[in-house]
Amino acid sequence: MFNSVLVVCVGNICRSPLGERLLRQELPALEVTSAGINALVGKPADKTASKVAAAHGLSLHGHSARQFTAEIGAAHDLILVMEPGHKREIGRVAQYLTGRVMLFDQWTGNTGIADPYLRSEEFHEKTYAAVFEAARAWAKRLAPKE
Predict the structure, then answer these.
(1) Extents of the domains making up the chain
(2) pLDDT tens track of the chain, all 146 residues?
(3) Is 14 a catalytic residue?
(4) Of 9, 46, 66, 100, which residue is the catalytic one?
(5) Is 15 a catalytic site residue?
(6) Annotated catalytic, 105?
(7) Which among 14, 15, 66, 100 is annotated as catalytic?
(8) Residue 69's CB: how many other CB atoms inside 10 A?
(9) Which homologous superfamily does the CATH classification assign to the domain defined by 4-141?
(10) pTM above 0.90?
């Protein structure tokens, strides 16, 4: 059973905050946080990502980007990354965490979710849809069994 999940992308301002909030919405009893491999530390969620999320009824308000560290990773039972390269980077930083790392879209394609940073609103919409679908798939697997 997983009690905590860390969602990781690059800057921790687009995909991972979105994944964090969507998983938290689906599984309120689960501790879900996020971080970035090259985080824009202290920055809020990207404006376009926030706008698209809000259009779907999801708030990214209050998010503050933070840097992934081995210590943060070790504090979580499961680490969900947005791209295969993120898995490699976590393995490089903390090899002992590799068994906890899976792709966020593991159940919906298993190829990774493209970074929408500095891309069009339409691209952000596609990213939102991919993250939403993947979060729902994870929620089904992480939900407590009754």
Answers:
(1) 4-141
(2) 799 999 999 999 999 999 999 999 999 999 999 999 999 999 999 999 999 999 999 999 999 999 999 999 999 999 999 999 999 999 999 999 999 999 999 999 999 999 999 999 999 999 999 999 999 999 999 988 76
(3) no
(4) 9
(5) yes
(6) no
(7) 15
(8) 13
(9) Response regulator (3.40.50.2300)
(10) yes
